[in-house]
Amino acid sequence: MGLRSEVNHGVAPASPGEFAAPHVGPLEVWPPVVLAPMAGVTNAPFRRLCRDFGAGLYVSEMITARGLVDGHLKTNRLSHFDPDETPRSIQLYGTAPDDIGRAVEMLVGGERAGEGRVDHVDMNFGCPMPKVTRKGGGAAIPLRPRLFESIVRAAVDHAGDVPVTVKFRIGTDDDHLTFLDAGRIAEAVGAAAVSLHARTAEQLYSGEADWSAVAELKAAVTTIPVFGNGDVWEPWDALRLMRSTGCDGVVVGRGCLGRPWLFGDLADVFGPDPSSGGAEPGDPPTLGDAVAAMARHARLLVDWAGPHGIRDFRKHTGWYLKGYPTGPAVRDALQKVRDLDHLDELLAGLLVACDPSMALDPASLRIPRGHRNGPKPVVLPEGWLDDPEDATPPVDAGELVPSGG
After folding, report:
1. pLDDT tens for residues 341-357?
2. Are 158 and 115 contained in the same domain?
3. Rg for the chain (alpha carbons), in Å?
4. Which of 4, 189, 330, 356 could form a disulfide with 288 if both were Cys (CB 3.0 to 4.6 A apart)?
5. Is the pTM of this model over 0.70?
6. Last residue of a domain, one of 340, 359, 378
């Protein structure tokens, strides 16, 4: 019995015909898996690496509508796609309907130097970061349903036949739950799907996701797909989430940090198509496999971003090595890597000091990666809760750069 069989928690792969492929507008998503937008992570190199392991819908890191409209160079770089990337999926953040409408027109019309049109636009209403919510952005917007409605409507109205989806959280805190209203509004104004991160903004990334909220949303939103997000660390979690809530697919965020092969495991347990059924995935990669993925990821980043791409890669090194007993010295050295030659030297030394066939500690599969902060009270603009029907966009929130949510 392989390692995977020992840790699947008694969950069986998908049976033939158990799940249908959700349709996001004209896009059929199979396996029913979406890569969550994560700032500084889900750029073109990381998406390419993940696509090599398995299919799904791979959403870019978020860009701001204001930045796109104003032609900010950083925004244009973040909205880059590989020439062969399809479908092209991007997450957009904004707080003013006019900015959102213009930005969506630019994205779907290909009005960016050297870029074609996108095939899917996802809207961010889940960011819990204080620098965003205190300005009335991110997870604060659904507290004002008319403002939320006007922003989503602007995106849908300017997208033509390109599907617009909406991602949000349960609410700002336990006393202000907004997800059911947000889901119904998004459905009513023409969103192609909704995704729920089953935590409140107050939780940030702490505690456990409340999958029962995904089930509630699925019961309330009946004409478009509902995707569940939160605590999908292993392929078995995706199956449990869909079976327990009836949702149409899953969104994977922190679970894939340093583990792009998770999408291959997800493809295995769901199967090549809905009628085929899934199978047990193979054992997790050995240390040698992880090192090979690290080397390729770093090169893709440097090709994309130039020499400073190696600095961006530093944060990934600890995620890749989590679960392999390599010792603290090599981890510390990798987080200070200077360039690709230095990386090759460090990785070669690692494989001399440690057995390349070293297996992953199975307990590490469920260790959270990335953000773990929270809970923390949500900071809102003064008077933000006084008039929920106020559709006035918040002042100066459009320039903020959320983390994803």
Report:
1. 999 999 999 999 999 99
2. yes
3. 21
4. 356
5. yes
6. 359
